[in-house]
Every structure is written in structure tokens, then in C-alpha cells.
């Protein structure tokens, strides 16, 4: 459906009520995979992190990763879930080449976590409580790369390559209850909910929580029902929406698309849909019925789990401060206005700013550097801002600026040196000779030379036209290669204009 | 050196330890015998002669250097083809795995190697262990050494025939519903299905995960015990592996040889596993053995296990259900044969489908279809769910019986070895043959089959099945060794010494004189 065929969003909401549901997959950052001892790491050579078990070779058997269970329980507790006294794995049977065993080891009727909820706060201040039906464990599939086609999709490809490195990586799938009453906020609820899950997973340290690396993936279910009806409409499931902004866009798109179809007298097909980041549209995937038969049955190669209540309580004590509460506390203590704070949160720099403040910097300076120059450099390099410098390095840099050793301009050069691995800010200042020249001697010499060079300017200054000093200041700063405090130069220029012969 | 092949593993071990015989000599004797008789019997799918001799030479060198080795070091062994071996093809009797050499050893194989046993090769079996006759192997049948027109039992017909025909003193089997015990019974050898979880399944190609168990095949109870001690014990790679520490099975077998070992032992005869459907000669030898037990001071009690009636039905739902899922991985993507479809595009679905169509035999397909159906939405509760309930009831029957007796006994199989083709056309007849052995798998309890004589009407071996409570495997060895000793004392010989001599080449045996 082209953009022009979509129904206007406000009109869609006038005619229909959206009902939402989200399935968020969180990839755990355990050292090894869910059911074998292979490394759980991103970016290794294809099929190098594999063994008879995760390759699904004949005779391979699963062994449960205890750390993955622990992470799942902690995640469940942070989502306010009950932790099941008895839980077991089940086989979800379907054939697909990225699934080595041709079944996924998942959980069916006995998930490890169930019945939780989280409350999210929208930009308007509206609080929405999202009920969580369950959070269950499962293993990830391998990765298919379709070769030879123009689009990289399976359609039109000549052949496909399979990399089983990701096969068997532990996932927790968090399934919400139906979300009603979202109304106009539906897209924002999607984005904010996924952001909250990501933030919680990150705060717990159970996942790297990088959406761009697929650590957090969202399937968004959307259905519409006509105003006044209490019968649920047919839903679509938009798969693998992999950025917060895309979640918001995909939900909005589906509302507009479904409204247009329904309003024209059409019907919605129950199906999965693919999200296309480039065009901002969804397209039909495979039909999906509630009766999809995965022939689930309890995994006979694994024992049922009965996490002891003592262990669960022990794990509860390890939960960090809930991210929402932490945000409130930090904003108050830093004194940021909403916009400033949102800027930090949206750039995923809360931890970085907090650590920089803890290292002695002022909150405003920390914010300014992280969301400004460092974010810009990170963007250029295509990496995460907090991978460029450490909070301690930044705090040291800020201290040099505040002590007057560096101007902002010089500080940016020092920052580049630090990023280039030339040492701490103090070391870079020394090795590059970048400190502000605070000795008036060389400044006066440079100023006198500049004034004598431009007698007309000198005359104007002497006539009281102080704005003419700018030209001299520029020449002096140039001569000093920027390593002078411009304010001090200005003072001295005015002084020397009266003094020299 | 042919006498070396007649020795039990224990007797051969003594000669090896005392250096009267080298491992190379023992291995060569068995390889020569295999060359002589196996063209006809076809117990082996693969013989690793060079590797076996090299391994044997290495053992001899270590022994000569004074290294302390496991008593079984240097003793040859045959390995059922269901177990992954990194130096030999592993096919599970299926065409779909033709030529596949795994990149790893099953835990039990690794333990054999660590103990210095000499793997001779891989033995024939029904495809993916589905069958009771080895007729479902994709590589041809194995013949019963007692009568070459008859089946050697299954699925482990190859391992049983190899041991019974003196091609190896020991073999490994796997038992999902009787695949170790029934072949042992019909070939006059000894076979043990350990307690579920007693022996690692890692590297055993799964048929039905909740039922499969690897175990020893041998000619004497003591030999089986020695092998059980090598392969048993916890394996972290198998999550269903028990963490218990186990007593020595060999010591338990030796305890059975002491005077009065059977005195006061409470033996339960399962009412439901006798009578109708049991061959007369089987019942006769079974009854005689009970009399022998009474004479030795055992107390015989009849016990009832009313739910055993439903065991076969439940088994043939649980097994296919698990198998349909376990066999899904045979998709041509990562290992095994690949068959392209004759028509249509080469999509992964089409290639997968063509490969499975060409690679799986009829019995495998039958069970995959059965299992897929049993797990389907809307049928799960009626089939798989009900079968699991029956399983619980059978476990309760065992618990009730073992509250009254120490061991349970029954004939190992309802009949002696049947003829090739006799039950092939009727899967139900083949399935019913496992009625005696299936309950132990459903309950996870250990079971053993030992030879108790020949049925008068056909002169073929009859087996006695002994079952014990879960984890009481040692009790099987004590009682089994005691009964074996009583029987051999009465006969004045071992059972297998009565097996017909196998002529090296059949080709000219009868006609040569007439030429």
C-alpha cells in the first residue's frame, strides 16, 4: 500500500480502536550458549562457534546453561513476574534450515516467568501499565544469508548460506497481554515499552541490549476494531522490528493500513508482516493462524526445572534500581530540564553521564560533551559514543577546561588525541603542546606585532572603536595557534593599543 | 589362535594381563574369525581392521611399559552403529547417513577407548533402531548364528549375532523397547538395559529420548558387568544422566557366584507376561528355571501388573512421537546424503523432502507419520497425553511389585527366533513381540536377559528377563550370575558352546564332494 492509500492517522483513530500486543526477544549475554558449551559471541567466523549439539548432529544432546536460567529469572523478577516453581522446556517442531534440529527448544505450557507488569511513562506524562503474560526461555536460530539475488531476500536468491554461530544462543521471549485503550498513543506505547524492556535488560546486565545487533527484537501485533464494537479484529504480526523508531513507525503504519483496508470493506488477513526500514512500510509474510501446529511436547532430553525459592529470593536481592526510578532520581539530582534529560536518555548515555559525574565532572559539562562532540565523533565513526572515551578520561578533560588550561577548541583537539589512543588528557596536552598560554610575555609580543602590522586598526582602537580589536585578536590567536585565551587576548589588545608607540 | 575367540572377556583379560597373549594376537584372532564367518552372517556393517590392530599394538606397548591398565584393556569389542565414532562411519542402519563419519565419539565410545578396549567395527541394526529383527536395516539382514534362516532379533541383531558367533566377546547395544534384551534372548547371549540415566546417551543417535538406554552385550553375566563398569556413571553432556555413584557391577556379579546367593531372594513372576501368546518351549524353560530358583532357596511369588496390558499401545505412541521430532534433523543440510528432486525447483524444502523420501526406509516413515499425527493439535491429549498417563500407571505397577519382591522375572521374548519375512508384512505382529521388554523402558527400570536353554520344539535359545528397581542394576548382576552358574552346572557347558559350528565358506560346503 502506498502512502497515499493509507488512511489519515487521526481519521483511523476516529473510526477504529487499536489493540496491541508485543513479543520482545531479548538475547542473553551469557558466555556460552543455552544448551552447549560453545561461545556466545557476535562476529566470529561463520560456523566456528559450533558443536554436535548446536549443529543438531545425530547424537547431540542439550545441557542447560545455569547462568541463562539465572538471567531469565532476574529478568522475570524485574518485570514483576512470578517465577514458576516448576518449569520445563518443550520442543517446537518446524522445518527450517536455520534451525539445526528442525525444532526449537522453547517453553510451552510451563514458562519460567509469568504474570508480570511494567508501567511506562509517555512523553505526555501519561502512565500506561503493560501486563506481561509470560517470559520464557528458548534457543535462537542460525543466520541465513541469501546470495545472488538483488535484494538479499530469499526471493530471487541463487543459494543461501547458513551460519549456526547464533544457533543455540539463549533468548528470553517476553509476551504481553493484549493492550487495550492505547488510542492515539499506540505507536508511542510500542516504542516506549520496547525501550523500557531494553533498559531493564541492560540495567540487569543480562543482555548487551543493542537493537542494532539484534540483541533485542520486537514483533508487534496490531488489530483494529470499529468504535463501539467489543469484538477483536484480526491481527497482524510485524516481525523483527529492530529499532525503537521503527517500532513506532510500524505500529502507526499498520493502524493506517488496516484502517484503510477495513474502511474500504476489505478484510485483514491473519499473517506475519515484514517491516521495511527504507520505505517505512510493511509487506505480507506468511499466513499465521492460531492453529499453527508446532506439535509442542515436553523436551525429553532435559529435566524439568524447579528453581528453589531461596535462590529466587537471592536473585531478587541482586536487582538494580528500576530504570524508571533511577531516571527520576538522576534528573532531579542533575537539575536537567526535560529536553536535556531526554537527549541523554535517547542517546543511551545515561550510564556514561552518571559515571562522568561520579568521576568529578559537573552534570551539565558531562551532558554537553557526551551528547555533543563525542556523539558527533561516534556518529561519524559509526560506533557507540561510550566506546570512544571513558567517563574518567572525559572528567579529566572537563577539569582541564574548567581550570582554564584548555579552551573548548583546544579541548576538542585533546579529545581527538585521547580517542586516538595517545594517552590521558593531561598526557595529550603535554605531548601535543596544546595548553593555553597563560604567560602574558609571548602574548604581548604577538599583540604588539599584530598592532604594528595594522596601523589603521590601531588608530581605530585608540579612537575608542573597540570592536575593531577583533581583527587583531584573530591575528594573535592565529599566531598563537589557538593556544590563547581569547578573553585575555582582548584585554591585552586594548591595553597594548594605548601603550605602544 | 581360534581358541582366543572362544574365551570370555574375563578369561581373555587374564591372559592379556599376565602377558600370555598380546592384544594384537587377540585382535587378529577376532578379525580372522570375522573374515571367515561374517560374509555370511553380516553382523558387521564396518570392520576397522587396521585401526583395531594399531590400537591393540599401542595397548601392548603400554602394558609392556608397565602402565596400569583397565583389566579389559586389549579386549576387542563390537559397537552398534547407533553410536557416534569419529574414526568409523556411523549410519544407524539408515541410507540417509550412508558414509557419514561423525566429528566426535559418543561418551560410551570415548570411555571404551579410555579403558583400552579395541573397537573392531560397527554392527548392523534395524534402521534407527526401529524393529525387532534387524530386517529393517538399509544394508541387508544379519543372520542368526543358530539358524541362518532366522532373525537375530532387533534392533541390535548385529551386536548379538557378533557376540553369539564369537566374532567379539563384547558388544555395545542400545535398548529402547528391548533392542538389547530380545536379540540376546534369541541368540543365546547376555544383554543388559541399565537403569535409564545410568549410562550416557551422548552420541547415541536418538530414537526415543525418554526410552533409549545404552548397555552391554556379552556371553556371560560377569563380562556384561565388567563392560557396564566401564561405560556407566554420570556424564555432564547428558542431562538425564544420573549423578549417583554406582557400586561395581563386576563385584555384584561375583557375589552371585557365592554359595547361597539366591537364598531368600524374593522373585516375582509377572502374571501378565506369561501364558497365551508364549511359545510352549519358552514357557517350559522358564518354568524349569523357576524350579531351579526355588531349589536354590529363592522365594517365588506371582505378582500382577495390570497396566502392562497397555504398555505396547502406549509405547507405540510415545516412541513415534519422540522419534518424529528426533529424526527431523536428517534434512541433508549439515550431514548425510543429499538427494535433489527430479522435478521442481531446488528449494531447501524440496531437497529436504526428496532426501527424506529416498533416505528413510518404510518402517521409519511409518513411525514418523504415526508420531507426527500423535502430537498434532487436537490429538495430543488423546494420544501422547494418554500414553504418558499409562506410563505413570506402569511405573506404579512396578513400584507395587517391588514393594513385595526383590526382582521380577519373565521370559525375555514370547517366542524363539522367527524366520525372515515372517512378521515383516504385519507391523503389529512385530510390535507385539516386544511385549515383555517394553515395560522396563517405560518405567526406566533395569532389565537383563540371560540364556536359559533351548526350546525343545525348535532347538533355539530361550531367554530369561530379570528386572530390578531403578538404580538397583547391581541386583540384576548378582541374581543373573547366580542363575547362570546353576544352569551351566546342570548342563555341564555354556549355552553358546552348543551353537552350530559356522563353516568359513558356504560356497562349496555341500557340493564339493559331489563334483
TrEMBL record, chain A:
Catalytic activity: L-aspartyl-tRNA(Asn) + L-glutamine + ATP + H2O = L-asparaginyl-tRNA(Asn) + L-glutamate + ADP + phosphate + 2 H(+); L-glutamyl-tRNA(Gln) + L-glutamine + ATP + H2O = L-glutaminyl-tRNA(Gln) + L-glutamate + ADP + phosphate + H(+)
Record carries keyword Nucleotide-binding: yes
Keywords on record: ATP-binding, Ligase, Nucleotide-binding, Protein biosynthesis, Transferase
InterPro entries: Asn/Gln-tRNA_amidoTrfase_suB/E (IPR017959), Asn/Gln-tRNA_Trfase_suB/E_cat (IPR006075), Asn/Gln_amidotransferase (IPR018027), Asn/Gln_tRNA_amidoTrase-B-like (IPR003789), GatB (IPR004413), GatB_Yqey_C_2 (IPR023168), Gln_synth/guanido_kin_cat_dom (IPR014746)
One MF annotation (Gene Ontology) recorded for this entry: asparaginyl-tRNA synthase (glutamine-hydrolyzing) activity
Any Pfam family hit: GatB_N
Main enzyme class: ligase
Residues in Asn/Gln amidotransferase domain copies: 351-497
E.C. number: 6.3.5.-
GO biological process: glutaminyl-tRNAGln biosynthesis via transamidation; translation
PANTHER family: GLUTAMYL-TRNA GLN AMIDOTRANSFERASE SUBUNIT B MITOCHONDRIAL AND PROKARYOTIC PET112-RELATED, GLUTAMYL-TRNA(GLN) AMIDOTRANSFERASE SUBUNIT B, MITOCHONDRIAL
Matches recorded under HAMAP family: GatB
Family membership: Belongs to the GatB/GatE family. GatB subfamily.
Function: Allows the formation of correctly charged Asn-tRNA(Asn) or Gln-tRNA(Gln) through the transamidation of misacylated Asp-tRNA(Asn) or Glu-tRNA(Gln) in organisms which lack either or both of asparaginyl-tRNA or glutaminyl-tRNA synthetases. The reaction takes place in the presence of glutamine and ATP through an activated phospho-Asp-tRNA(Asn) or phospho-Glu-tRNA(Gln).
Complex formation: Heterotrimer of A, B and C subunits.
Name under which the protein is recorded: Aspartyl/glutamyl-tRNA(Asn/Gln) amidotransferase subunit B
Gene name for this UniProt entry: gatB
TrEMBL record, chain B:
Family matches, as PROSITE patterns: AMIDASES
PANTHER family: GLUTAMYL-TRNA(GLN) AMIDOTRANSFERASE SUBUNIT A, TRANSAMIDASE
Family: Belongs to the amidase family. GatA subfamily.
Domain Amidase: 25-476
GO biological process: translation
GO cellular component: glutamyl-tRNA(Gln) amidotransferase complex
Lineage, top ranks: Bacteria, Bacillati, Actinomycetota, Actinomycetes, Micrococcales
Catalysed reaction, written as an equation: L-glutamyl-tRNA(Gln) + L-glutamine + ATP + H2O = L-glutaminyl-tRNA(Gln) + L-glutamate + ADP + phosphate + H(+)
Subunit structure: Heterotrimer of A, B and C subunits.
Keywords noted in UniProt: ATP-binding, Ligase, Nucleotide-binding, Protein biosynthesis, Transferase
EC number annotated for this UniProt entry: 6.3.5.7
Main function: Allows the formation of correctly charged Gln-tRNA(Gln) through the transamidation of misacylated Glu-tRNA(Gln) in organisms which lack glutaminyl-tRNA synthetase. The reaction takes place in the presence of glutamine and ATP through an activated gamma-phospho-Glu-tRNA(Gln).
Protein name (Swiss-Prot/TrEMBL): Glutamyl-tRNA(Gln) amidotransferase subunit A
GO molecular function: ATP binding; glutaminyl-tRNA synthase (glutamine-hydrolyzing) activity; transferase activity
One Pfam family matching this protein: Amidase
Catalytic residues (UniProt): 80, 155, 179
InterPro entries reported in the protein's UniProt record: Amidase, Amidase_CS, Amidase_dom, AS_sf, GatA
Enzyme class: ligase
